Each structure stands twice: as C-alpha cells, then as structure tokens.
Amino acid sequence: MSLIQIDHVCKQYMMGGETIRALDDVSLVIEQGEFVAIMGPSGSGKSTLMNIIGCLDVSDTGSYVLDGKAINQMKDWQLAEIRNRKIGFVFQNFNLLPRLSAYENVELPLIYRGMTRKEREPLVLKALEAVDLVERRKHLPSELSGGQQQRVAIARTLAGDPAIILADEPTGALDSKTGIEIMDIFARLNDQGRTIILITHDHAIAQQAKRVVRFRDGRLLEGV
C-alpha cells in the first residue's frame, strides 16, 4: 500500500466574488521513502496540495488516503493528531519562537505530546546532532544565521520522528551556498529512509529530488 494516495482531488476558494479552482482533479501517489519535489509558479496549486497532504486543509471532492487511513473522513482533532505524529513541517521563514533557545524550539512539539523532560532530552539532542547544532543549542534564533535557523527547524521536525517531512520553499530565504547545505541534509535524511516532499518554484532545487511533479493552474502536468 502506498504511503500517500490522492485520487481526483478538487479544491475551490472564493476570492473577490470569484471562484478559484486551486486544485483541479489531481491524482498523485507517493511511496514510502520517496523524495518528491512539487514544482510550479506562484498560484499554481502546489501550496494548496501541500496543505492537504499535511492535513492542514481538506479537499472539496476526491479522496486522500495516508498510510491506509482515509483523511477526508477525519474530524479536526484527528487531523491535528496526524499532524503531530506523522508529519513534520519545514517552512521558508523557519517559524521559530524568538524567545526560546534552539533546544527549546526543538523540544516544544514533544512537550505538546505530553512527554516528560527525561523522555524529551535524548530526542532533542539526537535531532540537533543530526543537523550539527548541539553546540549552539542554548542560542536564541536571533543569535543564529539563517541557515542555522533552518537547521533548527529541521531538527524540530526530526525530534518527532515523522513518517513524512513536508518542506515548503525551505531554501527560499537563504543564499545559494546555504541552500545547498540544507538540501544536502534533506538528501541525507531521505537516504536514511524518510519520505521527503519539497515544495519549490526553483528548478535547480527541484532537480535535487528523485522525482519532480509539476503543477500549473491547479493541474498536474508531468512527473506523476
């Protein structure tokens, strides 16, 4: 059974009195352990698809099955549980809490899970070690470079041991050299068996994935 199976999904929004079809009959299968880039210009539908894959939104029609479970039939609290347990998010602007140290930012999702301090500590340190930031664990985000902040964000995701990592333009706020370093981390994580789904409009970044899915006007063009 595929990890992600999306069948004939449609999603519409109302904008200025006009109906916008963000996703138009989209079908996509992603297997466990794949590294997939979803590529397209702004407004093409790729971010809407990411929100649906990440259980941040649900489709109007069609079906989405994640690891054998029908997502469309779940209640909000069940979707929140899926996000917390199965899906890790990495965003362009890092989304770190400025008053928390690197360690505390990585630790926070584990606190939400109800884990004890003793349970959390080895997971946090292991995640920071995976991105080479243990020595800077006490630093605030403002004391870290952009690349280091993104590595903290990746560590925060890793600490929860998600089945899927969704990365939305993860190199968009970084210079090209730092972007390459971040993509090397994703490649290494994928080599370890993690499923990576990368949203990007950058052709050079997309080509570092093992499969590219292209979007335009809410529809898949190729790479399925």
TrEMBL record:
The answer on whether this UniProt entry bears the keyword Hydrolase reads yes
**Pfam families named among the record's database cross-references:** ABC_tran
Q: Which Gene3D superfamilies match?
A: P-loop containing nucleotide triphosphate hydrolases
Q: Which domain of life is it from?
A: Bacteria
Task: State the EC number(s).
Answer: 3.6.3.-
Which Gene Ontology MF annotations are present?
A: ATP binding; hydrolase activity
Q: What keywords appear on the UniProt entry?
A: ATP-binding, Hydrolase, Nucleotide-binding, Transport
Span of domain ABC transporter: 4-224
Per its UniProt record, what InterPro entries does this chain match? AAA+_ATPase (IPR003593), ABC_transporter-like_ATP-bd (IPR003439), ABC_transporter-like_CS (IPR017871), ABC_transpr_LolD-like (IPR015854), MacB-like_ATP-bd (IPR017911), P-loop_NTPase (IPR027417)
Question: What PROSITE patterns does this protein map onto?
Answer: ABC_TRANSPORTER_1, ABC_TRANSPORTER_2
Classification via PANTHER family: ABC TRANSPORTER ABCH.1, IMPORT ATP-BINDING PROTEIN
Name listed for the protein in its UniProt record = ABC transporter ATP-binding protein YknY
Give the originating organism.
Paenibacillus allorhizoplanae
**Top-level taxonomy:** Bacteria, Bacillati, Bacillota, Bacilli, Bacillales
